[in-house]
Design goal:
The chain is mostly helical and about 100 residues long. It is built from five helices and no strands. Helix 3 packs parallel to helix 5.
């Protein structure tokens, strides 16, 4: 029995939601005050924070202790990592033609 294209698309969407949930479940909550005096975040943390940015933004609407961008960061390299992680350059964009 062949699967219809509609079922395959639904399965891909469900798999994507599952993977997104799995990845964002690793996001740590750090109070902003500790970020100002504690560890500084660099390029790799910028990539990770960029990947989880949509979830962080949503949570920050309901919890004022959650922020989307690390306050205590290393500057340019953190911002570059954040931009790459959030897909700001379209690195993960599809090159397929859209009909």
């Amino acid at each position: 029995m062949k699967k219809s294209p509609k079922n395959l698309k639904s399965n891909k969407i469900l798999l994507g939601i599952f993977l997104l949930t799995l990845m964002t479940s690793c996001a740590a909550n750090e109070p902003v005050d500790e970020c100002l005096t504690g560890q500084t975040y660099g390029f790799l943390w910028g990539i990770w924070h960029g990947i989880i940015a949509p979830i962080s933004l949503t949570i920050s609407l309901f919890d004022e202790e959650v922020v989307m961008f690390a306050v205590n960061n290393t500057g340019f390299f953190y911002a570059l990592g954040f931009l790459i992680g959030s897909g700001g350059w379209g690195i993960l964009a599809s090159k397929a033609k859209k009909d």
